Amino acid sequence: KWQRNKFVGVSLVGKTLAIMGFGKVGSEVARRAKGLGMHVIAHDPYAPSDRARAIGVELVGFDEAISTADFISLHMPLTPSTSKMFNDQSFERMKNGVRIINVARGGVIDEDALVRALDSGKVAQ
Fold first, then answer.
1. Which residues pair with residue 72 across a beta bridge?
2. Helix/strand/coil for 58
3. A single GO CC term, please (predicted)?
4. Under a CB-based contact definition with an 8 Å cutoff, are residues 91 and 118 in contact?
5. Cα–Cα distances in Å, from 72 out to 1, 6, 24, 49?
6. Which end of the chain is less crowded, N or C, counting CB atoms within 10 A of the terminal residue's CB?
7. What are the C-alpha distances in Å from 8 to residues 3, 60, 70?
8. Number of structural domains found in the chain
9. Dist. CA 57–CA 33, nearest whole Å
10. Across the chain, what does the average pLDDT equal?
11. Distance separating alpha carbons of residues 71 and 54, to the nearest angstrom
């Protein structure tokens, strides 16, 4: 049976993108997303606020970033503090149907928690 909704895209205009890790790659993703008409926020405890301001990006806390985003793009390094940073508790705070793009190391996501979030519809498939 044809299920049209499985093949229809999502408009990015006006959607909120949270960049998690605002280094060189995260900054470039933010520039491009702004060009696509997205509202871009970022979380990075080490990012200089002047660089974010120059691009038109607001630096926010972790909880605000994950709870307000329609799309979350991961760009942080894998360290002891970022290992499994995206777990059951963080997925619970996200919007239903959030889309996650992981450009970071796989270890920043708890894979078992991600499977549960996908199965429940919390994270879009």
1. 18, 100
2. strand
3. chloroplast stroma
4. no
5. 32, 21, 17, 20
6. N
7. 10, 31, 17
8. 1
9. 10
10. 95
11. 22
How many Å apart are CA 59 and CA 12, to the nearest integer? 20
Q: How far apart are CA 41 and CA 16, in angstroms?
A: 7
Structure tokens at 37: 């008409």
Q: Is position 11 within any domain?
A: no
- Which residues on neighbouring strands pair with residue 102, listed in sequence order? 74
Mean pLDDT, contiguous 10-residue spans, the chain (125 residues) = 78 97 97 98 95 96 98 97 97 98 97 98 94
Length of the chain: 125
Cβ proximity of 75 and 49 under 8 Å: no
CA–CA distance from 18 to each of 2, 90, 115 (Å)?
Answer: 33, 14, 21
CATH code for position 36: 3.40.50.720
Over residues 19-35, the pLDDT tens digits come to: 999 999 999 999 999 99
Which residue is it, tokens 């970033």? 65
Residue-range definition of the domain harbouring residue 84: 17-120
